[in-house]
Design a protein that fits this description.
The protein has a ten-stranded mixed β-sheet with strand order 1-2-5-8-11-14-18-22-25-28. It has a ten-stranded parallel β-sheet with strand order 3-6-9-12-15-19-23-26-29-31, with no helix packed on it. The chain has one domain: Pectate Lyase C-like (3 Solenoid). By secondary structure, the protein is mainly beta. It starts with a helix and ends in a 9-residue tail after the last strand. It is built from two helices and 33 strands.
Amino acid sequence: MEKKLGLKILILLLILFFSIFSGCINNDNDLENNVIIKGKDGSYSSIKDAVNNCEDGDIIVVGQGTYKERILISESVTLLGENKEKTIIDADKLDYAIYIAADSVTIKNFTIKNTDDVGYINAGIYVNSNNNMIANNNILDSKMYGVYVYNGSNNSFVDNFFSNNKFGIYAVGIGHIKIKNLNILDNICLNNSELGIYLRFSYNSTIKNNIISGSNYGLNMQYSGRNIISFNLFTKNNLGLFFCCGSENNIVFKNSFVDNYEYNAKSNTKNQFDYQGFGNFWDDYNGTDNNSDGIGDQAHVVFHNENIDVYNQDSYPLIERIR
């Protein structure tokens, strides 16, 4: 009880601290009474004010407009934008737009943009909790991270558009504290300069149906295992998929690797590049399919550093692209 009370006090102090330094609402938009807590009296001109007056389980509905502010969420609430393209949270070159400190938060239907590398966090959305849903958002123009997940498990990122960030989705555990059960589904990661998706100390996560394009590394995993990567398109990255640094026992199947410049996939650790008779489509595969079953007759060998004693292959390479 004392521990929980202490945590609440700490969060309240953080709210007070960050409110002092938060950006102001953009007065060029008519935002008066534009934000409501569903089922409750009253309205607000800023998202931050509504969040600071909400309780667990509340749904905050945000009307169209540009909100120049940053928001610390310390209750289990839903933040719901009216229109993804026209409901904009603009960090205005501050270090983050949304900080999720509570479990079971939903963020849906926003454009979130313009964070800078001026502080410690530096993310469009910073997640330091569990069981959250980030869905149907545009997350753009961060000088560092579109989304940063720190020691949070059971978080889902679904149907988002990440573009023009340095890192699209960046999820890290620390040492013995591992990230588990991330769901990264149906996202487009486009032109995030350094990394489309990065996982470190991540286990039992699903990365499925994403388009990952225009990054130095499309997907990079370090110290991560038992993750499933399927039905993704890796295209026009410098390095498509890279496993290293203790990342083992990951399963990669039914992905398409197309027009990646240096290599499609590289694995310096032991991983599985086919599953139940299905591998991946590789645009540099030169084998045959004499029986026309859609599966290559020869295995596709996955690239690795010559000085590392490891061997990975796709035993069932696909002849046709999945997507």
